[in-house]
Structure formats: structure tokens, C-alpha cells
């Protein structure tokens, strides 16, 4: 099933319904589907509100200390997908290293920043991640098993006249459902189960989403993995064209398709604008 309904507001962490639309389009492109979740009862709402306010404040402070990007009118914010279990990003310290932890349980957790205005030329991206396990039998090339314990997601603008008719239909569906079109192209850095390092995996539902494997297999479980990437060079490798402006950057941990449980940590992330051409 490729269709995904409109994202909804949640109260567990900082989340704004006005921002749902941006990455809802991105999430639609990822083709995420899953089981339904139940809403809290009325008796739980008062207690939830107090806990959620504390979580919101802690997460806001942590993102300000850990996640650095060029300026945007919009902050880092988590969001949930309808029909998906959502596990929160928790500020923690791991071996005196500040991080955001996700305890995944057959879930999809996303924390994103949308750029307004779009970042015209992304440059260097540095980040770190750590995981204690991999999703069971995950396969990045299989639509029904394409889970990954950690992802860094980049959504780009571009020349939509180059899209296939299918992509135009999907984007129009997204616009009708969410108010926003799909990103022109999405590049995702991933940790795979078995794919060779440096492999570019094309999403089975659309070739406008491509994954670049930076870590793979179990040999580095429990170890911080630090990466520094040239975003423009990686986009050229993955798509064979120049990148357009960057619309969104996101952290994403998903284990829903494989019904897996694991813990993922994200360390500091720094995204820089490319230096002006001389």
C-alpha cells in the first residue's frame, strides 16, 4: 500500500500540526504503513499534559545543544505517522556524550527540521549514531522489510518537469492530502543489515528516494559511528545530477515492518551551507 493519510498532531513531544504537512509528503514517499494505535482516555489527558510539557522542554533544549543547521524559521520538531507506533526522542548522556535516544518497538520515530526558506546549497554534514541491534531480517531494497535502526534524511527541491507521470500523480495526491507536494528527491543515509558500504539502494516504490549505506552489519553494534559527508557529492553519486535546494533534514528510526525492538542513539549533527563559488 503506497497511500498514507494526513499526519496528525501528537502531544508526547514538541509537535505542531502546522508543520505536519511538510514531511507528511516525505513520509508518503517513503511508503510507510502499519497497524493502528489507540488514543489515550480522557482520564489520562491531564497527567499526560504535564509529562508532555516536561518532555517538550527537555527535547527543545537538547536539540539546541546537539543539532546545528543553517537558520530556518522552523525549529526541530518530532512527529508521528498515523497508524504507526511512535517512540519519543529522549535526551540522554552516553559515556559522557550527549545524545538523543530512541527505544524502538515496532515503531517509527522521526525528528525533523524544515527549512524556511529552503537551504539553497547544502555542504558538509557531520553526524554520529549508535545502535545496539539491527531490525530482524531487514532489507533496504524490499518494500515490506526496509527498516533501518538509524537514518539521516534529506529532502530536496528540483525540476519537477523531469518527473514521470507516476511521480506527478503521487505528488498531487500528497498535495490534496497534506497541502504540500512531495520533495523532488530524497537522499537517506542509513545503517543496513547486509548491504555493502557505499551501496546506493533505490526505493522500490519510487526512484526519487535513494539510500546511501554508511554502516552495515553487526560488527559495529554498541560503537559510536562518526560520519562526515559532502552532501552535494553524495547526491550526485546517488542521483547522477546536481542537487537543488534543501527543504528538510530529519532523524528517523523505524522498525515497524520487521516488528523489531532496538535502541538507537543520535549524537551531535552539524549541517553547513556550501561555500559560495568563486
Explained architecture:
The protein has helices at 20-30, 42-66, 165-178, 231-239, and strands at 67-68, 77-79, 90-94, 97-105, 108-119, 122-131, 148-156, 185-192, 200-202, 209-216, 225-230, 246-254, 261-273. It is an alpha+beta fold and 278 residues long. The chain has a single domain, classed as Jelly Rolls. A seven-stranded mixed beta sheet has the order 2-5-12-7-8-10-9. Strands 1, 3, 4, 6, 11 and 13 form a six-stranded mixed beta sheet that branches. α1 (20-30) runs antiparallel to α3. The chain is globular. The model is unreliable at 1-40 (pLDDT under 50).
The fraction of residues assigned to DSSP E strands is 25-35%
Oligomer: single chain
What is the annotated CATH architecture?
Sandwich
CATH first level: which class?
Mainly Beta
Number of helices: 4
What is the residue-mean pLDDT, rounded to a whole number?
84
Global structural class: alpha+beta
CATH fold-level name: Jelly Rolls
Radius of gyration: 18 Å
Amino acid at each position: 500500500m503506497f497511500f498514507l493519510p494526513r499526519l496528525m498532531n501528537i502531544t508526547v513531544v514538541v509537535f505542531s500540526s502546522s508543520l505536519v504537512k511538510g514531511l507528511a509528503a516525505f513520509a508518503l514517499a517513503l511508503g510507510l504503513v502499519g497497524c493502528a494505535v489507540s488514543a489515550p482516555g480522557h482520564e489520562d489527558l491531564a497527567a499526560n499534559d504535564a509529562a508532555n510539557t516536561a518532555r517538550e522542554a527537555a527535547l527543545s533544549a537538547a536539540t539546541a545543544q546537539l543539532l546545528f543547521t543553517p537558520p530556518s524559521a522552523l525549529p526541530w520538531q518530532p512527529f508521528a505517522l498515523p497508524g504507526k507506533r511512535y517512540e519519543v526522542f529522549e535526551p540522554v548522556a552516553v559515556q559522557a556524550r550527549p545524545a538523543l535516544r530512541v527505544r524502538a518497538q515496532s515503531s517509527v520515530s522521526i525528528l525533523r527540521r524544515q527549512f524556511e526558506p529552503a537551504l539553497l546549497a547544502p555542504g558538509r554534514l557531520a553526524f554520529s549514531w549508535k545502535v545496539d541491534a539491527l531490525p530482524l531480517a531487514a532489507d533496504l531494497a524490499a518494500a515490506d522489510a526496509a527498516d533501518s535502526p538509524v537514518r539521516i534524511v534529506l529532502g530536496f527541491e528540483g525540476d519537477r518537469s523531469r518527473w514521470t507521470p507516476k511521480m506527478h500523480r503521487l505528488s498531487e495526491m500528497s498535495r490534496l492530502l497534506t497541502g504540500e507536494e512531495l520533495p523532488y528527491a530524497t537522499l537517506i543515509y542509513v545503517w543496513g543489515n547486509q548491504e555493502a558500504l557505499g551501496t546506493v539502494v533505490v526505493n522500490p516504490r519510487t526512484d526519487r528516494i535513494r539510500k546511501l549505506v554508511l554502516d552495515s552489519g553487526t560488527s559495529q553494534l554498541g560503537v559510536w559511528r562518526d560520519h562526515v559527508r559532502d552532501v552535494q557529492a553524495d547526491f550526485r553519486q546517488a542521483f547522477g545530477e546536481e542537487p537543488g535546494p534543501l527543504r528538510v533534514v530529519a532523524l528517523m528510526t523505524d522498525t515497524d515492518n520487521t516488528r523489531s525492538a532496538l535502541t538507537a542513539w543520535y549524537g551531535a549533527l552539524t549541517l553547513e551551507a556550501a561555500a559560495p563559488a568563486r
